[in-house]
Amino acid sequence: MNIxxxxxxxxxVRDLRQELERCRMATKWRAxxxxxxxxxxxxxxxxxxxxxxxxxIIMMGRRML
Length: 65
Prior knowledge:
Elements: H1 5-64
């Protein structure tokens, strides 16, 4: 089997395209994961604010007793 420079160049281009596609997929996956993490963190922050408000109201009620 005789491989010339043109065949080597074509294989290199194919490899680079495959690597580019893998990078694109990884970037999309990472973006989705980060979006989910940020959404969960925002939800926890909102829940924490309501929990804090509820605790404040309960403490005020205890003081009144």
